[in-house]
Amino acid sequence: MKAKVLIRPRQGILDPQGKAVERALPALGFEGVSNVRVGRLVELETDDPSKLDALCESLLANPLIEDFEVETYDDSSAEPPDSRSSGPLTRPGSS
Question: Considering 7, 15, 58, 60, which has the largest number of Cβ atoms within 10 A of its Cβ?
Fold first, then answer.
């Protein structure tokens, strides 16, 4: 089974990378963008998806300052059908 883990700073926690990106956007012609949050995406394969939350809490994310979302899907599937996340991991309009 394959999994995607989205890790990002918890709401209310300072996100220096997000602030740096937000400050740079107007100089690049992107006006009106705010509340930028920068996270990371980890893709992996596992034989035991029941241990993914423990893996995330102990290794991939710092539970004091980061939240994570786990999305699992079958190896043969193009789209992840079994999702425990609050939303898609792709940009709107992309596939």
Answer: 15
